[in-house]
Backbone:
């Protein structure tokens, strides 16, 4: 197998992004997160700011949590008035994710990458979670907020991630059945999470 791709989804405050970065450094491969927005902008010719604005617009849209429009892979052409629609901005991100999975071993954080790449034999998906106390403690260390403000922020962020995932995939974000491996970072700690992912990789892909 030429390339191995690991997708990482994570609850806010669980350290999933940190674990992904640690794993990427350990394996000597790239780790992609918001860089995908820049790459999608370059590929489509659509201003990068529109990708960020789309994320924010969706985050505050009441209709978003009620709908589901699973990604099917088709790109809307530039001459179409829906070319810069939220759906097509996601389509271009998905195109970049597929291209990355085809050409290099890497780690991709969020962006429904597990669903986009679900039919790729060289992909394994990971979901990182932790209990509330662990997540609150980590988040409070990183941000200047009161406990009440932080609690609200975590709840809103996770809700947005769940709504985003449901809209683009038709599935529930926190459902363990969507992933190859679910890890409790609060119990394992970050280094052991990295070890567990590497161990699963060896078994899954028959690595020496």
Residues:
């Amino acid at each position: 197998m030429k390339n191995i791709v690991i997708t990482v989804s994570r609850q806010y405050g669980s350290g999933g992004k940190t674990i992904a970065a640690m794993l990427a450094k350990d394996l000597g491969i790239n780790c992609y997160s918001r860089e995908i927005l820049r790459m999608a902008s370059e590929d489509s010719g659509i201003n990068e700011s529109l990708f960020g604005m789309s994320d924010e617009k969706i985050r505050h849209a009441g209709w978003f949590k009620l709908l589901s429009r699973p990604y099917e892979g088709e790109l809307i052409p530039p001459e179409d008035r829906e070319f810069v629609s939220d759906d097509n901005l996601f389509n271009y991100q998905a195109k970049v994710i597929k291209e990355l999975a085809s050409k290099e071993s890497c780690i991709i954080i969020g962006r429904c990458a597990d669903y986009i790449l679900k039919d790729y034999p060289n992909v394994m998906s990971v979901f990182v979670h932790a209990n509330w106390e662990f997540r609150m403690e980590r988040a409070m260390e990183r941000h200047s907020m009161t406990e009440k403000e932080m609690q609200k922020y975590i709840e809103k962020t996770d809700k947005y991630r769940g709504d985003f995932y449901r809209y683009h995939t038709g599935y529930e974000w926190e459902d363990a059945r969507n992933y190859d491996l679910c890890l409790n970072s609060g119990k394992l700690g970050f280094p052991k999470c990295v070890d567990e992912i590497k161990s699963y990789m060896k078994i899954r892909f028959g690595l020496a």
Observations:
- The mean pLDDT is 91.
- The longest strand covers residues 123-129.
